[in-house]
Design brief:
The complex is a heterodimer of chains A (258) and B (536).
Chain A lengths: L1 H22 L9 E3 L12 E3 L3 E5 L3 H14 L4 E4 L6 H7 L6 E4 L9 H10 L5 E4 L7 H14 L2 E5 L9 E13 L4 E14 L8 E5 L8 E3 L4 H19 L9
Chain B lengths: L1 H11 L8 E6 L3 H5 L8 E5 L2 E5 L1 H5 L8 H7 L4 E4 L2 H13 L8 E5 L2 E5 L1 H7 L2 H16 L6 E6 L1 H10 L3 E3 L5 H5 L10 H9 L5 H5 L3 H19 L18 E9 L2 H21 L2 E12 L4 E7 L6 H16 L11 E13 L13 H17 L4 E6 L5 H4 E5 L39 E7 L17 E6 L2 E16 L8 E10 L4 E7 L2 E8 L1
Parallel strand pairs in B: 2-4, 5-11, 7-8
Antiparallel strand pairs in B: 1-6, 1-7, 2-3, 5-6, 9-12, 10-11, 10-12, 13-14, 15-16, 15-20, 16-17, 17-18, 18-19, 19-20
Helix pairs in contact in B: 5-14, 13-14
């Protein structure tokens, strides 16, 4: 008697769940993205990182750019994991906006050219953290990459690769085509900011190439967007300001003696 | 079928509707005993820098639970301090449990060192509470071989039985229906809920009896479900009303392991995903599990079943831990009890479930679900790749890129709810004078690379005692490749720790920009140039 009632109750609950699934609100494309820093939003067609996509960066300044891309989700509460790249400047990461409390650095023991332990580490991380950054030294076998990308689409994580922009499976490639430092003179000044020009390539929604100019790192480390047209002028102004500020800010020779 | 029988039993024993007659056997100081120390040596087991258990010799010297490590050491100079090892506690408790297996098959491990049996069956079979208590004393005494004593308490409900075991010398039997009287004079602090008892003491309720005398409805209204549970315990009832009992059997989950696993970590790995699955199912139904039966079967049909209880709700990670503990004890036990084959099946059967009250996760910072997931994956990768493979940043003091923030193994810090904010009152992490200002280098290689900085004539640049470069640098040579310099600044000399001959370092730092657009931090130390960091 009681058992019959119970099965009936379970049955009802199962049916209710079916209905709930059917009337559940659709996930809009917007909800399927991770936010990026405002200065980088112009580089991505959705204005954010599409969940499940692979982003690769290349050129002089690739590490800074990768950190800046990772900073957006990190600021809004996501965790970031860096696999196989212990040499990342943590201070630079923090200045770019990555929240260090939510950063994991994974150093898989290296084993040969294509890393099996790195692949398994990335596979474990995908789904548990939102952003996985893969260092330039990690090489994944094509089979591993394919398996990973399937898992990522399901779990909604984003992979940021440093280097390997033309590799198959990359959804958005960011190439730094120009980079120029300001603030450093011949024997005076201080590295102040770097003006970079980025061109994107990609597939799907990102197949239309985009371009943008940034100060990366900016004077405080965080990226600052430059208008395409005004980029030249602004950079010049920045240069002058930068030199002035640098002169004031440079640590005194005597003060540095501890 | 099973369920109906249980209900009937509960109805028939009307005066105490749900307090199950229970025997609790307690081995005092188990964390010390499990680590293999004799109790007459002063030993303290610490966890998170607090003493959680101590040997009787240490207690005589004034080392009590809850003391900080330093305080404990100051009270007893020859104190041996050891780190807690929960897995080992559970593993070494397993042979003791095995000795009880022919008294009843359902032995519940409250925590390593304490186990509980439901008395209804054994008492009828062996002829009364005294007989069972004696048998338990004897069996466990043989298995323990004098390492520690055993205290046995029998009462209505596991809470009263646990307290009876604490009061036992060495056996204490509280007669049927007399548990409320037994509990009444006890101090309210035995409830082990500091927040609640603090309020109760201030209200003048110092014993369980006075608390139990309050009307249950008022306690619920004032103190919520937690208070209700405590009130029921104080009144000699079970913590939760009886309707929360015995889930329908279909909540159990099972996995077949093929080929059978003879190593614990393989089984634990399967158990992990099984626990996750169970957890998700229970979560969807809005219930959580406070006691679980873990059943393992070998390819030759040997079965080991253990019940595990948890004060809070058992999380997926906690369930997986218990599977590992249980199997560790079984597979690595003595030859007599070890199974003859590999484990071919693991089942998790939720035994007691309660409506999930839900854990309130932080809205503004604090612990959140994403933190929980990240902490879990960090733990998993530590198991997979080694403890040092997963690191997290920590703020330290220093002037150099590799000193301000360092990587420490994730195992050494609590990942959830951590804060790395700059503390200006802490001299270690407050901004150090002589740091290079932002932007910081984005790459700091673990070991610096040797280089050479030359002037226009190809002579190595040096820095004079007054902190000036000998000549303007014109070329940077890295690995034999020459790069013309387009911009440079420096030197910023640092003379650190001159008071310490071993750690004294004198360095001069330059920022160098070469023609290829690469900016580097180049350091001169002891006449050698190093590339310590670069801006990529």
């Amino acid at each position: 008697m009681e058992v019959a009632e119970q099965t009936q109750a379970i049955d009802k609950r199962a049916r209710l769940r079916l209905v709930a699934d059917r009337v559940a609100p659709l996930a809009l494309a917007q909800e399927r993205t991770l936010p990026v820093l405002e200065s980088l939003a112009g580089l991505f067609p959705e204005g954010g990182l599409r969940r499940g996509s692979v982003i690769a960066v290349e050129g002089i300044g690739a590490t800074s750019l990768a950190l800046a891309v990772a900073a957006g989700p990190s600021v809004s509460g996501s965790w970031t994991a860096v696999v196989g790249d212990p040499g990342i400047g943590l201070a630079a990461a923090e200045e770019a906006g990555v929240v260090l409390e939510r950063l994991l650095m994974i150093e898989p023991p290296s084993s040969g050219s294509s890393d099996k332990s790195a692949a398994s580490a990335v596979a474990a991380l995908v789904g548990a953290v939102d952003v996985v950054m893969i260092g330039p030294g990690v090489r994944l076998r094509p089979a591993d990459s394919r398996r990973l990308s399937a898992r990522m689409r399901e779990r909604g994580s984003v992979i940021i690769r440093v280097g390997g922009i033309d590799a198959p499976g990359v959804d958005v490639g960011l190439r730094i085509v120009e980079s120029e430092w300001t603030g450093l003179g011949a024997g005076h000044g201080l590295l102040r900011a770097r003006r970079i020009r980025i061109e994107t390539q990609g597939r799907g929604a990102s197949s239309r190439p985009r371009a943008g100019a940034l100060l990366l790192p900016g004077p405080q480390g965080a990226p600052i967007a430059l208008g395409e047209k005004a980029a030249g002028e602004k950079a010049a102004g920045e240069k002058a300001a930068g030199e002035k500020a640098a002169g004031e800010k440079a640590p005194g020779k005597l003060r540095a003696l501890a | 079928m099973r369920k109906q029988r249980v209900r009937k039993h509960q109805e028939s024993s009307a005066p105490l509707p749900d307090a199950v007659r229970t025997l609790v056997a307690w081995c005092p100081d188990w964390p010390v005993v499990a680590l293999g120390y004799p109790l007459d040596e002063p030993v303290a087991v610490v966890h998170a820098n607090k003493v959680i258990a101590s040997s009787s010799a240490a207690r005589q010297a004034g080392v009590a639970r809850g003391l900080r490590r330093r305080v404990a050491q100051s009270r007893c100079a020859e104190l041996e301090v050891v780190e807690r090892d929960e897995a080992r506690e559970a593993r070494s408790f397993e042979p003791i449990l095995v000795s009880l297996d022919d008294i009843t098959p359902r032995v519940e491990v409250t925590r390593p060192g304490t186990c509980a049996l439901a008395m209804r069956g054994p008492a009828r079979y062996f002829g009364g509470d005294e007989a069972v208590a004696e048998l338990v004393q004897q069996r466990m005494g043989e298995a323990l071989a004098g390492r520690t004593e055993i205290r046995v308490g029998i009462a209505d409900g596991p809470f009263a039985a646990g307290l009876a075991a604490r009061a036992a010398k060495p056996t204490r039997i509280v007669e049927v229906g007399r548990s409320p009287e037994f509990l009444a004079p006890m101090s309210i602090s035995v409830l082990d809920q500091p927040d609640l008892t603090d309020v109760l003491v201030r209200l003048g309720l110092r014993s369980l009896g006075t608390f139990a005398a309050l009307p249950a409805r008022d306690v619920l209204a004032r103190f919520g479900t937690e208070g209700q549970g405590a009130h029921r315990l104080a009144a000699g009832l079970d913590e939760r009303p009886p309707d929360a009992r015995m889930p329908p059997p279909d909540w159990s989950v099972t996995t077949e392991i093929d080929p059978p696993a003879d190593r614990v970590d393989r089984v634990a790995f399967c158990a992990r995903s099984l626990a996750d699955e169970l957890h998700q199912r229970l979560e969807r139904e809005g219930i959580s599990c406070i006691r679980i039966a873990i059943e393992a079967e070998t390819e030759f049909g040997e079965v080991l079943l253990r019940l595990w209880r948890h004060e809070g709700a058992l999380s997926a990670g906690a369930i997986a831990d218990r599977v590992r503990w249980q199997l560790n004890g079984w597979l690595n036990g003595s030859a007599a009890t070890r199974p003859s084959g590999g484990i071919s099946r693991v089942s998790l059967l939720p035994d007691e479930i309660v409506p999930a009250k839900g854990r309130q996760l932080g809205f503004w910072g604090g612990e959140t679900e994403v933190d929980e997931r990240a902490a879990r994956v960090a733990a998993r990768l530590q198991g997979q790749l080694g403890a040092d493979a997963v690191k997290v940043p920590e703020r330290r003091g220093g002037r150099h890129a590799d000193e301000q923030l360092v990587l420490v193994p994730a195992a050494t810090v609590e990942l959830r709810g951590r804060s790395l904010a700059v503390d200006h009152n802490n001299p270690d992490t407050a901004p150090w004078p002589g740091r290079l200002p932002a932007p910081s280098p984005s790459r700091v290689p673990p070991s610096p690379r040797a280089a050479e900085l030359c002037d226009a004539a190809g002579v190595m640049v040096t820095v004079t005692g007054r902190g000036l470069p000998s000549a303007a640098p014109a070329e940077l040579v890295v690995d034999g490749r020459r790069q013309p310099i387009t911009g440079w600044a420096g030197p910023w000399p640092v003379d650190e720790r001159w008071w310490d001959t071993d750690e004294h370092r004198r360095r001069a730092r330059f920022q160098i920009l070469t023609a290829d657009g690469q900016a580097r931090l180049v350091t001169l130390e002891n006449g050698q140039w190093w590339i310590t960091a670069y801006w990529d």
